Structure to design on (393 residues):
């Protein structure tokens, strides 16, 4: 049962925080106060604290961040004054007011708790009810930037988090059991993020078309080279498709004609099952890879117009616009043709992605021919072995 003083304090704090905090208080908001209150009550009940101690914990949790309505730095002292003024007005015993203030003091960074109730209060302030430590970290970073003018790079912020969580400890076993797993996950994820930042630092930066030092739209030599290359790639694509079709036809014929012939002689020579199996496997694998070589690439059919300005797409390829309405396509095409840099990006993207598709075709086609060559040799060898040794036993 909540006492009347707790109910009055709850109503007072909700009204105070709702009016006094700004949208920039993303971490120290009303939700945080409620989560600390609930965590303090939960931990207190787990340790079977007396009702009077639970009341002190709930009051301290409610008031511990009220100072943020007046100031950001040093808010704990203001929170204690607000709590003292309210509780004194409610005729709360002075000795209990002092205990509430002592519990609010425990929420300061660096203050060491001594009694069990102080340890519960300290741990409750670091609960994960409703959110993760990483989410809390992002919200706290925003507050530091807005209210304390502390601006850190991503690397500095991650190092700060690692340093804090590395030295942080829970003072109660129940808190460790409830929140320790999320803390360990936070440390692990923070380390990975920092390592990735370190790797990205030494990674080569992406090169834009304008970094090449020339404009394709203004250079006839560049235009001629791109036209020639584009034509060659289209011709090579046709050659690849023809080669894949040849393999599909040959292997289909082998399955249609060769396998039935071998199968018809199985009664006389059961060992022919081995070369027949090798031939069938060869044909199936060859057909699969030949099909993947000729299979069309996946296409979205529409393009985000913002990507056009960034030079990350190409409206001259039908797969990027066939689902778009005519107005959006014309608007995008106008953007491309009116800007030389965007036009250069489109030309380069067209050539680049066509080349990648062509490379994948020939890679799969090479695998197809490799399978077919090895499979046919293996079939002949197994067939000869069957004839030579099949009758011996």
């Amino acid at each position: 049962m909540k006492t009347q003083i707790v109910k009055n304090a709850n109503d007072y704090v909700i009204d105070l925080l709702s009016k006094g905090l700004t949208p920039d208080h993303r971490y120290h908001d009303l939700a945080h106060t409620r989560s600390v209150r609930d965590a303090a009550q939960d931990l207190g009940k787990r340790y079977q604290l007396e009702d009077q101690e639970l009341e002190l914990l709930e009051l301290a949790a409610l008031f511990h961040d009220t100072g943020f309505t007046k100031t950001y730095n040093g808010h704990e002292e203001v929170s204690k004054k607000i709590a003292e003024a309210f509780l004194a007005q409610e005729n709360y015993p002075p000795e209990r007011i002092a205990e509430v203030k002592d519990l609010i003091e425990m929420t300061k960074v660096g203050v060491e708790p001594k009694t069990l109730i102080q340890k519960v209060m300290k741990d409750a302030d670091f609960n994960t009810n409703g959110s993760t430590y990483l989410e809390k970290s992002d919200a706290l970073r925003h507050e530091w930037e807005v209210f304390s003018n502390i601006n850190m790079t991503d690397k500095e912020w991650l190092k700060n988090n690692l340093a804090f969580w590395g030295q942080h400890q829970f003072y109660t076993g129940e808190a460790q059991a409830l929140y320790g797993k999320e803390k360990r996950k936070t440390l692990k994820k923070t380390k990975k993020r920092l390592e990735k930042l370190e790797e990205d630092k030494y990674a080569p930066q992406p090169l834009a078309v304008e970094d090449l030092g020339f404009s394709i739209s203004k250079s006839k030599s560049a235009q001629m080279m791109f036209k020639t290359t584009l034509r060659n790639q289209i011709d090579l694509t046709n050659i690849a498709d023809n080669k894949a079709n040849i393999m599909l036809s040959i292997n289909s014929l082998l399955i249609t004609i060769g396998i039935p012939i071998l199968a018809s002689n199985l009664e006389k020579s059961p060992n022919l099952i081995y070369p027949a199996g090798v031939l069938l496997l060869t044909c199936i694998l060859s057909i699969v890879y030949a099909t993947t070589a000729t299979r069309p690439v996946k296409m979205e059919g529409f393009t985000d117009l913002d990507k056009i300005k960034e030079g990350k797409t190409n409206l001259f390829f039908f797969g990027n616009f066939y689902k778009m309405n005519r107005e959006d396509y014309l608007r995008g095409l106008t953007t491309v043709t009116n800007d030389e840099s965007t036009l250069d990006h489109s030309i380069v993207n067209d050539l680049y992605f066509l080349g990648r598709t062509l490379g994948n075709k020939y890679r799969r086609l090479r695998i197809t021919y490799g399978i077919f060559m090895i499979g046919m040799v293996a079939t002949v060898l197994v067939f000869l072995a069957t004839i030579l040794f099949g009758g011996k036993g």
